[in-house]
Design goal:
Elements lengths: L1 E4 L1 H7 L11 E4 L5 E7 L2 E6 L2 E6 L5 E4 L1 H4 L6 E6 L5 E5 L4 E4 L4 E5 L11 E6 L5 E5 L3 E6 L2 E5 L11 E6 L5 E5 L2 E5 L4 E3 L6 E6 L5 E5 L3 E5 L4 E5 L9 E6 L5 E5 L3 E6 L2 E5 L11 E6 L5 E5 L4 E4 L4 E4 L11 E6 L5 E5 L4 E4 L4 E4 L11 E6 L5 E5 L4 E4 L4 E4 L13 E4 L5 E4 L4 E4 L4 E4 L4 H4 L3 E6 L5 E5 L4 E5 L2 E5 L11 E6 L5 E5 L2 E5 L4 E4 L11 E6 L5 E5 L4 E5 L4 E5 L9 E7 L5 E6 L4 E6 L19 E2 L10 E8 L3 E8 L5 E10 L2 E8 L6 E9 L2 E9 L2
Antiparallel strand pairs: 1-14, 2-57, 3-4, 4-5, 5-6, 7-8, 8-9, 9-10, 11-12, 12-13, 13-14, 15-16, 16-17, 17-18, 19-20, 20-21, 21-22, 23-24, 24-25, 25-26, 27-28, 28-29, 29-30, 31-32, 32-33, 33-34, 35-36, 36-37, 37-38, 39-40, 40-41, 41-42, 43-44, 44-45, 45-46, 47-48, 48-49, 49-50, 51-52, 52-53, ...
Amino acid sequence: MNKNCVLLSLLFFTFSSALAQYPGWSNYTPGANVSVLLDDEDSMWVGNIGGLVRIDRTTGEQTFYNKANAGLPDNHITCLANDKQGHKWGGTKSDGVFEFDGNAVCAVYNADNSPLPGSWINAIAVDDSNRIWIGVYDRGLAVLDGEEWTVYTSEDCRYLFGFINYITFDATGAAWIGAGSIPVRFDGKEWVAQSFDHPVWAAAPDNSNHMWVFTDKEGLGEYDGNEWTIYPVPDSLSGKQVLSLAVDSSGTKWMASWGNGLISFGGNTWTQYCTKNSDVPSNILMSVAVDADGYIWVGTTEKGVGRFDGKEWTLYSASNSKLPIENITAIASDRNHNHWIGTKGGGLIRFDEQDWQVYTRLNSGLVSDSSQSLFSDSDNHLWVGTFKSGVAKFDGSTWTVYDTSNSDLPENEIRDFAQDSNGSIWLSTPNWLVSFDGQVWNRYQPENFSEFKSSFYSLNIDRQDTKWIGFWDSGLACFNNDTWTDYNTENSGLPDDRVRGIAIDSQDHKWITTGYGLAEFDNDNWTVYKSANSGLPYNSINYIEVDQFDRIWFGIFGTRGFGRFDGNEWVQFIGPQSPLSGFWVNAIDRDAENRVWIGASDGFSAGLTVYDERQVQVIHQSPDVYPDQHDLEQNYPNPFNPQTEIRYTLDQTGPVSLKVFDIVGREVTTLVQEVQKAGSHSVSFSGVGLPSGVYFYQLRCRGEVQVKKMLLLK
């Protein structure tokens, strides 16, 4: 058992709930997959893969909380509990535990900032002493008592090595912990494992202070404090896991089953509510709860939340969008303020900022529910590229499909689109560059295509109508008037031959994302940005977009990252304290209002994140008023010898890191590493003992990173 006093840690990572939001950022997330339900006074609280939802039990009104508007560390909520102050404690799939005051997050604890043995949280409960009990996936159990942490691992109880499914308490205050599917009772001193032949995934006490558990073979087990009584499950209900168990005021046990719907046991009678004999929304249930009025609530994997009054069912979507669970693959905005979202397997979604409409093979002319690329042309027609079913064109009323069977399209996999000044649509397939003028299809390949040993991938067209094509692992090519020019790591400044995206700014500079840095090509010279010489946190960059101010927006491949570069300053949104709905950026689009739309997922949760700078209020600072976001200023003087001053402004009290790096990314010094108050700050940096040259200073605060460069001249 490990005990750690973490008063400093608590102060370091607790921040004001009033400032735990991200002005200008919005999350649209799917919410059908419900992990947990929690009753609280007049509301039912729902944890799902899209965040936290409050359902008013009287009106049915839903309020949505997520990373962007409430500061959740992760939108995938796995467990919930109420403390004695009415705060909600939630566990997440990848970013630890949060404390929620009803409006926003006021504290976050994870493996990086606390003694928690891991950040994947499976179970959470609050005991009569207001201690927070936290079950961590295959890492053990942690208890937070005010300012002190106690951590239990498999060294304390050999069963704590596995998946902790639940935590609940009996009349004596002892904790019952589902450790590796084995019920373990812990009274603070002794660990006692209960013997069952089959896994136990759910447990709950009744009003008589008896503990009830369910196994998929034996049935219900009742423990009266001395011995167990087993109530065998009917054969028709056996073989299915029960993931959640609740007991109502009459003593009836309600079980959420993975495959058998809702099961109840009252007296000696078993009752099943499935889709064949009732209006239960699904047979695959993950959670069940009983509210203060005696209504039964269930959480499903695909239909949201259902409420049962004993006769009728009421369904709540528990989602702030019609986004499916499947990953977002592409985004395109048209001139009618429609935003088109492509998915892998979930159809095509249109969002006009009020209503959501889903197009699938069943209700439209789409030939596939999976789209790989989207493009809105100059006539406001939408082009949908599929993985293996050709391309569909939608003019607002009619769908037209082109594939290898009805056109000269050479392949049915469409990877990217662009349009030239004559209105022709250009697209890339794995082995061809293709143009279509509305009547004739033309196909192009470089003569040395076989030497590329790769396939066409990304595509863009510059102001001279030159086509720029990125190859999966063979560099970059431009095509102009039947002439091909190749760029790769051997004959140019391209840092890597794995080209993922191409964007073109107003100066006709090409911005190329690769697996080893971001490259800028001004048609004569190459500039390469890597983590060693810029504000890039990692070198592997995938999706890229240029806005009307020539700022570069990019997704960081395979990490919790998204960033922006304006030619001087790097701003990054990384880590659990960023507003992104997921850490893996799959698509980026900029609309006519210069809003940035980002499709992201992380394998557990997914969604759409929108950044609208018009919603970010600029505040002129006074001694009592702080800006809505922190800001790093340019050092002064610059160039300097040997002394310069670095100023920055914080929007709230919190942990701050300010470091200096040299041109190759080596850390020179740490200027600040502490909790600082909101307001203006300044730090002096001395170049004594350092050689002349370019240096970078990096401000890190609440998961956001800003970097600027400075010049030391001696």
